[in-house]
Amino acid sequence: MSDRTTAISPVEEVVAPSEPGTDTASAPEPAPRRRSAALFAALRWTAAVVVFGALGTTVAYAVTDRERTDIPTLATESDGRWTYPPLARPTLPAGAVGPFGRGNRGAIHYADLESLLLPAPEGSRPDLTLDGENSRVPVSRFLQEYEKGVRGTMATDLRDNGLRHIVARGWTMADDGTSTRVYLLRFHSTASTLFFFNTHLRGPKEAPLKVTDVEKVSSADETFPSVGVHGTETYIYDEAAPRGPVHVRHAYVGAGDTLALVVQSRKGSAAAVPFAQTVILQNQLLG
C-alpha cells in the first residue's frame, strides 16, 4: 500500500486598507476568548502532514504555507476527494483582525457570515431547501437536523442565549448521491457559543443528540485526521453499526463566536475522505 501526498494550500486572508488617519487598534474589543482545544491544536497554515485511511487506501495530506489560494484537488480519483473552487478568506473591515488575531480577545468574526461558508464542489446539485437570501435560514430549518423531541429546548436556548443568525449551504453529488449540509451559527459572544454547544451538542465519546437519519447512535470518530486550526474545537462523529439504510457522518467546529455543523450522508455507506476534506476546509475558513 503506497502513500500519496497532496498539498492543500492555505486560504488567504484579505484585509481592507485603513482610511487615512484610522487607528488600526480601534476595532471592537470583545470579551476574553476561550483557550483552543488540544484535540485539533496542531495546524495553522504551517507545514503539517495528516495521514488517514479510507476505503482501504492510505492518503497523506500535506498542509503547507504556500502563497496561493487554490486547493489542488483535481487528480484524486483514487482517494475520492472532491474538487472545490479556489478558497480565500473574505475582506475584513478596516482595522479589524481575524477571530484569533492579536487584539481580538473575544474571537469575533468581523467578516460577513455567508462569506465564511464553504462553497459547493464541482459535480454537485444545490439543496434548494437551503437556498435562502444571503444563504440565511431560519432556526426551524437548522433544527430539522435533530429529533423532534429536542427541538423545542434547543430553540429556546438559541433565542435566549445570543444567537444572531444562521447561514447554510447544501448539495448532493451527482455521481454517487452523497448529500452534504453545512450550517454556520453566529452568536453574540464566544461564551454564548460555548453554552449552546456544551449544553446540547458536545459528547466526548458519543454524540448526545441524533442527527437526521441516524438509526441508533453516532460515536466519536477517532480515525479522523488529528489536525485543526489554531483557536478552534472540532468534534467528529460517525454513525455506529448496525446502521439503517443511510450512513451519516457529522461534525461540529467551534470557532469563537461561530459554530459550524457539517452533515454528510449517503445510502449504503458514506465515504470518509470527502467528509474529512469538507470538514477541514470549513474549519480553515473559520480559523
From TrEMBL:
Region (Disordered): 1-32
Entry's transmembrane regions: 42-63
Keywords, sorted A to Z: Membrane, Transmembrane, Transmembrane helix
Name of the protein described by the UniProt record: Uncharacterized protein
Organism in which the protein naturally occurs: Streptomyces niveus
